[in-house]
Amino acid sequence: MKVNYKKFSTGGYEFKDFKGNPINKVIDMEIPQTLTIPLKQGFGGEVSVIVKPGEYVKAGQIIGIDKNAISSPVHSSINGIVEEIKTIKHLNKEVNAVVIKSDGTKEWQPLEGHSREWNKLSTEQIQKLLYMSGVTSLDKSGIPTIFKSSVISPEQVENVIVYGIGTEPFNISLSVLLQDERKSQFVTGLKILKKVMSNAKFYLAVNKKNSKLIQELNNLLFDVDWIELYALPPKYPLELDEVLIPTILGKKYPYGYLAANIGVIALSMQTVTQVYDAVVQGKPLIERTVALGGTGWKENVHMKVRVGTSIEDITSLYLKEHESYRLILNSMLTNKSLTSKSLPMDRTSSVLIALKENKEREVFSWLRAGKNKDSYSNAFLCSLMKVSNKSCDTNIHGEYRSCISCGFCEDVCPVDIIPHLIQKYVKKNMLDEEVIDYGIFNCIGCNLCSYVCTSKIDVAKDIREGQEKLTKDECGRDTIVEPYFDLIGLKEFKNL
Ligand code: SF4
Ligand code: SF4
Hints:
Elements: E1 3-5, E2 26-28, E3 34-38, E4 48-49, E5 56-57, E6 62-65, E7 74-75, E8 80-90, E9 93-102, H1 123-133, E10 159-164, H2 174-177, H3 182-196, E11 201-207, H4 211-220, E12 227-232, H5 241-249, E13 264-268, H6 269-280, E14 287-293, E15 302-306, H7 311-318, E16 325-329, E17 351-356, H8 408-412, H9 419-427, H10 433-437, H11 448-452, H12 459-471, H13 490-494
The structure holds iron/sulfur cluster (2 copies).
């Protein structure tokens, strides 16, 4: 198979050599005494609870389902007794959750109909296994099946992109995810997905620096003619659908909509391994591999955690003591700091980051050498020399300053707009046609402009505020982002 080497032409930034990157070690976390399982996890709406307090449930048993709305079933991830059903704040939304007290056993109930001979299963049987396992709720558009698991049907999928590029400062390790026999299981997962989305062409996007993995996958896929392998630079935000799809397919992305609305499904490599687990081993989505990133951990291991395990269960065992740490889930660039440690890990969790909370400001920080800092500009010595142990901290490094029109935000912006210009329009409340023409709605919220800003301006936040004002009709306009070509699954998307 030919390996396609592609560049990432517009903007982007490579986060290199940060201290606290997850190492290739996996720990099976003990099952906590109590778990809280949100009834909305991943793609789709909240499901209706079908168990009652006092009821005994098995790990893998469905505890919430709604076949009439776009969603996927939710399972108990442990064996035990339902203690209560309560409303919790989960990822900035109020959702119902089921609290289950463990009986201490580890076994799980396999899905009915799974088979090692998956090829002999009908497409409908495979789709049922995917839906009943909950795997269909993974990633940004879900996986289409005969059930209401995505906004389009499997026949409408034209392209499937599977990615494992690792573009954030802290990433789950592909060597861990695809260890030993997991590589061939991953390839089987791809073949299962091809059976479901048979009209689709498949693309595999891998970090070009991981040449060993590229070679191994190439060898395993030698007889497959429906997949293309792409080697891409680990530049942030290449793993966001809005950037990945134009880069690989050369297709325009409809900002504000789902990839599924243009017939594309983008899936992470972990999702594909869980497709294998569901169909071949009958394993429901009750567990995730989560990497511990950042310098706040005693060891930067990967952990297998049951869904519903609280962040506190993890920090009490692995967080360093005597210091205060900021915790962030999944993405350091796009997610906010966690305000509560009671938040449960769900089926979308992949990286838990801990950064030392540094309360003091470094005055005139830009004058300092900063050998271990990361800087886009030449203000820090680190930009001129090779540094292999950069540290992420929460210090704002200097005073806030006015925009100096350095243009760095423009250099890194992956969607080719002028962030500092749009930000100035928003700050002056000039929210009119002009700012729309400048592409305010093309901003995908990657936050890279804020990261590189020499003056510490939160450019992305200001742009987001401008978008919100415009969409909330605070400027006397109707809604703004109109699709510029026919989108599929639009009615379903609007009902989400
Ligand atoms: S947040 Fe928006 S404006 Fe800033 S770099 Fe990303 S896409 Fe561009
Ligand atoms: S990076 Fe900051 S200072 Fe430089 S042009 Fe953009 S907003 Fe202005």
